[in-house]
Amino acid sequence: MASISKNNTQEEVSPSSSVNWKERILLPTLLAGAAGGGAGLISKHRKVHGLANICTTYATNFAIVTACYCGAREFVRVSRTGKPDDLWNSAIGGFGSGAVLGRLQGGQLGAVRYSVMFAVVGTTVDYATTRAKPVLRSYYDSIVNKRDDWLKLPEWSPIKVLDEEALAAKRAREEELYRSVHNLKKES
């Protein structure tokens, strides 16, 4: 029993363990599937194959490609004991996953084309997300932390934001109204 807890502690501390695999593999795969479904909605093949079939096909293909790329990137990261934001992991993982998927799709020439394409596109997307994350995080924090400041109602609006004193007066009026209505029901 002590060895199990000891191993769990070592896994949590170890930099090579994939603790946030949901964030780095599952979430991009689901987002790619949704993007693939959206691409299927505007595809020129939707009239021939049917909207549901083409959306499903695009969503499945986008999700499979993304899952292979993200899985290969994480495998390289764990093998190299690198950091999650290291772009070499993206390039090597993209090259490997592109080679495998390209070989399945188009032979040796397909493997070369797909490996270069996956390495370039995957590394570019990873670079863009590492640059965009701090900006999006600060924007999100500014909205969440300043709930009162992000939406200001105009002065002429009938909706008023009440302070503590006004809320207490409103509650007193509501309680008095409730008592008077409740007393009327007892008299009936």
UniProtKB/TrEMBL annotation:
<dbReference type="GO" id="GO:0045039">
    <property type="term" value="P:protein insertion into mitochondrial inner membrane"/>
</dbReference>
<dbReference type="GO" id="GO:0030943">
    <property type="term" value="F:mitochondrion targeting sequence binding"/>
</dbReference>
<dbReference type="InterPro" id="IPR039175">
    <property type="entry name" value="TIM22"/>
</dbReference>
<keyword id="KW-0472">Membrane</keyword>
<protein>
    <submittedName>
        <fullName>Uncharacterized protein LOC107827764</fullName>
    </submittedName>
</protein>
<dbReference type="GO" id="GO:0042721">
    <property type="term" value="C:TIM22 mitochondrial import inner membrane insertion complex"/>
</dbReference>
<dbReference type="GO" id="GO:0008320">
    <property type="term" value="F:protein transmembrane transporter activity"/>
</dbReference>
<keyword id="KW-0812">Transmembrane</keyword>
<keyword id="KW-1133">Transmembrane helix</keyword>
